[in-house]
Amino acid sequence: MLLGSVEAGGTKFVCAVGDEDYRILHKTQFPTDDPKETIEKTIQFFQQFPELQALSIASFGPIELQKNNPNYGFITDTPKLKWRQTDFVGPISKALNVPIYFTTDVNASAYGEYVTAQLYNEKIDSLVYYTVGTGVGGGAVLGGKILQGIGHPEMGHTFVKRHPDDLEFEGICPFHGDCLEGLVAGPTFEARLGVNGADVPKTHEIWDIMAYYVAQATIQQTMILRPNNLVFGGGVVSEEFLVKVRKHFKNMLNEYVHVPDLKQYIQMPRVKDNGSATLGNFALAYRVQSE
Amino acid sequence: MLLGSVEAGGTKFVCAVGDEDYRILHKTQFPTDDPKETIEKTIQFFQQFPELQALSIASFGPIELQKNNPNYGFITDTPKLKWRQTDFVGPISKALNVPIYFTTDVNASAYGEYVTAQLYNEKIDSLVYYTVGTGVGGGAVLGGKILQGIGHPEMGHTFVKRHPDDLEFEGICPFHGDCLEGLVAGPTFEARLGVNGADVPKTHEIWDIMAYYVAQATIQQTMILRPNNLVFGGGVVSEEFLVKVRKHFKNMLNEYVHVPDLKQYIQMPRVKDNGSATLGNFALAYRVQSE
């Protein structure tokens, strides 16, 4: 069986086909350019595989996921102006004529991690995946289902208690200033220190401040969803960074509720090389073709 | 059909029986005293009604809700020392021999509000209920099911951005200091102003500061669960207070995601006179007897 994956990111598209064991057989990538051209390139990639059974698209957002909404399958009020109100699923569905699952990039990553945990026989019923990169976002799987309310989560845009050594920084979120994304997304290095994050030594105190904020996101999830597991991906995250996050989380939680061992509870992605979303897409494509 | 409800609060127990239309037929209350005596009084009340079909217990916490845990049905690490590690469901189940549903007080309230919304034919799929009273807690219903992870939520214990005019106050949560509960629970009036909340004029600026924090809890839910509706009950909450919460919420959200009209989105309980938990208990008892 041939399954398809589209990861539509703000800067690049990654398209892949895989088998029912979720192994990648073919893969390509191209920049996120004009919507019409980029969608056309996506279609052309998959048209090489007439035996394709189903496709899952994990997209940057915001996107419309309510199937009864006339704009289902659209990218909606994105800051990427050319992509505003773009019908994304429609033209792909029409050209390829296979079942399509449509979700956010972080939802697909959460699902990929969840499926991998099941394959590893971990006893996990619920999982949250955060990406901390150019932006901050999160998705969750509860009891095998992707969490979805009146829209998809926007977990990067909650507020947090400010670190005493970071009170002056206004944050960079164009909507909220110092929400989580405004305080810890990759471009905050440039905004706070005037240098690229890759050039900031791991010993710099900024990492501790950022961990203080990410620990609060972990507290939010721990108190609201009570998941088995939180996974952190994205360019800002490293195991060293998560060591700091765990330290702050432990202090903040103060043993108020029981959580699993912190090394398991707060962890890097199981799927290496940013592969969680592709694997999640394959699993979601498998699911949609069998419905 | 006769259904039973126990609301086990930190200061008083309310026991009631009702019919399948969730109307209260008999009701009693007594102080939360020594566990053995209090549980015995609860049993004696229900033993008056041999036709009782099922019972739902909504308890102060923390409580153990995992059915595969040997301590299922216990009140666990509560600050009420006499009640620590008390088997609550066990003796009642043994004495009454009816199916019992066990949950938190706020979960039952959330369920009561959800069921009422269905009866009113509101198109609501998900709902969060917060109580802001002696403590702060929250429960949620998603797609008809009570939200439950590795334990029940403790939504009152997340952190929030401090209000610029309230930076000195340390908060009163014995575990977390200035978590949401530590900043807005009823006893914070005494701690901040030295007077009881009932004596603080509605024009006092403290209400605006507290609304700023409750609005952030609303932002957390909006970005994580994306519910249709948030209900606020408890002694601190009034319609005047929610007007302030809506104002801060609107400013903080900054139209980032679509939410329903704020008067519907953020509201007082549908069920009057603190009746949400009793009604929720009847509905949960009905559910457990038909399983």
From TrEMBL, chains A, B:
Catalytic activity annotation: D-fructose + ATP = D-fructose 6-phosphate + ADP + H(+)
Keywords attached to this entry: ATP-binding, Carbohydrate metabolism, Kinase, Magnesium, Metal-binding, Nucleotide-binding, Transferase, Zinc
Known EC number: 2.7.1.4
GO molecular function: ATP binding; fructokinase activity; metal ion binding
Cofactor(s) in the UniProt record: Mg(2+)
InterPro entries: ATPase_NBD, Carb_Metab_Reg_Kinase/Isom, ROK, ROK_cs, ScrK
Similarity-based family: Belongs to the ROK (NagC/XylR) family.
Cited PANTHER family: FRUCTOKINASE, TRANSCRIPTIONAL REPRESSOR MPRA
Name of the protein: Fructokinase
